[in-house]
Design goal:
Layout (H helix, E strand, L loop, with lengths): L9 E2 L1 H4 L5 H10 L6 E6 L3 H13 L8 H15 L5 E4 L5 H7 L7 E5 L23 H6 L4 E5 L7 H20 L3 E5 L13 H18 L5 E4 L10 H14 L4 E4 L5 H12 L5 E4 L1 H4 L8 H26 L11 H5 L1 E2 L4 H4 L22
Parallel strand pairs: 1-10, 2-3, 2-9, 3-4, 4-5, 5-6, 6-7, 7-8, 8-9
Helix pairs in contact: 4-12, 8-9, 10-12
């Protein structure tokens, strides 16, 4: 876009036209690799992590759920051991965020994403999830705690209209809040079985790819980074069809998109990642595929060793694929690193920025005007 030989600058409007205001842009930079790809680790799971820990405790003769403290320590251990290979870490506020910041289990130079939705939201009579905020949490609180991005999981099935309309309204509300507080918004719609279906049913598997692509077409416009499921199922359809689906997903998404892991086994996730990176994907935000065997290890020391060796290596190996073959977030918009380096904001831009926010120079005070020397 920009011609370096003429020193022509691009206007900041190229960023603003994509919703990338200063706070959002800074958050995107913070969670990215230097080349604009994203390798992110998900540790925000609560229900599934508690279930895994409970099974491990039962295997040792303790028929109980893990305590709050035990869940906190597990999340901190996983973050501490595996974050070195990631560009950013997603964590929940209830168990993880404050402790991870205080202990630097998520180091200060790594991007911090915080989940905003309630874990295990209520369902309607057809089994459609009805998303809602985590009690006691808000976009504003996530911004105030110093996070770089807000993540919202919003199950979405266009053919289940009750939950679809409810969750769309929820998405719009979170998007508005993120704009107001100028924080990056990462949206994660996922398909779900309903009306008596199971995830293994043919009816669900047959429509999963279509749901994933159509959800991106309808919802990606509301966010800054789109987190998508693999559009199909390995072994349920040919690799050629899955590749076509991935290209269709990239075309449907109006924003850079990253691939979630959905708890599949790591070898399957690695294959999905390799396929996705060849089809326009910008990176990953993977969780259980990296670390789900953690609670199967015998004792705290063995768990930490697993996370520091096998877990970290998995993230590092995926990171290599992402950096080598992923599409940088700015390339999604047709920009280069040189284009970004040429962008300049006009004098007085901060007067137009965040007009709802309090600023110096109100009634009865001196108003500084653009161009005034002071």
């Amino acid at each position: 876009m920009a011609d370096a030989t003429t020193n022509r600058h691009l206007s900041a409007t190229v960023l603003l036209s994509k919703g990338l205001t200063p706070g959002k842009l800074r958050g995107l930079q913070r969670i990215s690799n230097p080349n604009g790809t994203l390798t992110m680790l998900a540790l925000d799971q609560n229900s599934s992590m508690i279930e895994m820990a409970q099974k491990a405790l039962k295997g040792k003769g303790q028929d109980r759920e893990p305590t709050y403290e035990e869940v906190v320590e597990a999340k901190l251990d996983l973050a501490r051991q595996m974050s070195p290979a990631a560009s950013g870490v997603l964590i929940d506020a209830y168990y993880g965020a404050f402790s991870a910041i205080a202990t630097e289990a998520i180091p200060a130079h790594k991007g911090l994403l915080v989940r905003v939705e309630k874990s295990g939201s209520p369902k309607n009579k057809l089994g459609g999830p009805m998303g809602e905020y985590e009690p006691g949490l808000s976009v504003e609180k996530i911004k105030l705690m110093g996070a770089d991005a807000v993540k919202l999981l919003a199950p979405f099935e266009p053919s289940e209209v009750i939950s679809a309309e409810h969750n769309l309204a929820f998405i719009e509300q979170v998007a508005d809040d993120c704009r107001r507080h100028d924080i990056l918004f990462l949206l994660e719609p996922v398909a779900f079985p309903f009306n008596g279906e199971k995830k293994t049913d043919k009816s669900f598997l047959d429509r999963k790819a279509e749901t994933t692509i159509e959800s991106a077409r309808q919802l990606s416009r509301y966010c800054d980074v789109y987190k998508a499921e693999f559009p199909g199922t390995l072994g349920h359809g040919s690799d050629s069809q899955l590749t076509d689906n991935l290209h269709a997903l990239s075309e449907a998404s109006e924003r850079p998109w990253v691939l979630l892991s959905a708890g599949v086994d790591y070898p399957d996730y690695l294959k999905q990642v390799k396929m996705a990176m060849e089809c326009g994907c910008t990176g990953v935000l993977g969780g259980r595929a990296f670390w789900k065997e953690y609670f199967l290890q015998d004792g705290d020391e063995a768990r930490s060793k697993f996370a520091a060796t096998i877990g970290q290596k998995r993230v590092a190996d995926v990171d290599t694929v992402v950096r080598e073959n992923g599409t940088p977030w700015f390339a999604k918009y047709g920009w280069s690193k040189d284009d970004l380096a040429s962008i300049r904001a006009s004098e007085g831009w901060h007067f137009r920025f965040a007009p709802h926010a309090k600023a110096a120079g109100g009634t009865g005070g001196h108003v500084v005007r653009a161009g005034e020397v002071y």
